[in-house]
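Entry:
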Amino acid sequence: MLPLLPLGAVVPLLCATPATPARWGLQWEAAPGCIQAAPLSRAVEERLGRAVFGVMPEVLIHGTLGPEAASGWTARLTLVDARGTILGGREVSTAEPSCAAIEPRLALVIALMIDPDALVSREPQGEASPDEAGTPAPEREPEPVPPPEPPAWTLNDTAQEPAAEEAPAPEGRPWPERSTVSLAATASTGLGDTFAPGLSVAWRGAGAWTWFMRLAMYPHATAKPGAERFELFTASPEAGLCPLSVGGPGWEVSGCATAALSFVSVDHQGSAERTVDLFVRGDAGPRLHVEGRLGRTTALHAGLGATVGWLRPTLSTGVKLGTPLRVGLDVGMSFRGP
């Protein structure tokens, strides 16, 4: 029969067994142009000074990085254990227009989530002073370190951005960066002419020197030259080029030169008989657009145009259709497109 070891001899043997560090995994989704999973993993391991990510992780960090609704970027981190239980979360945000500004803070926060003590500055260990006989002092064996427990982060805990990691903000590009579709209420009038309300839809390309297309519908307007009465229905397709564009991350102002062919249905309600005719009117002139960002893909839209009629047909009464100079105003919403 084997002799039983005293309890005082067994406990030190168990404690002397080296602890295995927890295995971590990173599941990462980021917008195009932002840091991806592989370089982010290397940045975290460089901060920790060791490899921490591997296969079959015991704790998984699930993260996403995308633009904020108003401005800047936000990264959301969630801790999940091997059984799929959500342990907590963390948010890192920045108001900078470039997502590269958040990368150093993001690597720092993930490193702190994995090992809060690993980033404490380590002073070099002093060598043991030899005794008078010249015999060096025996080195002290390091005590076993238990595996780090996943920190109990609370959901929606916003990370404090270290001031030392601040990166200079790059110049912002005009907000749309891509084509925009605008839906607006519109109105058109001229000197001595009728007021015509309607609706418009416009599509404009991104940046400077781009194209512009617009369709405006004016379902009802009334003209009364003398004793006659005309009911007008107008559909006005318009196209042009926009050579001017200035703005920042949250706004843009652009200028265009456009031409339009308006198809006008004229219902002549005269004293003798009623006739309906179709006419074509041509206009050309400048147009100004202003976009003010509301969210990630939406903005307030305002447009102002002035046109000169280069093609004005003559009505049955002998008067020209419309006035030589007209102005129009659009107010509505813009949506960022492809």
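Residues 1-19, 121-134, 153-173 have pLDDT under 50 and may be disordered.
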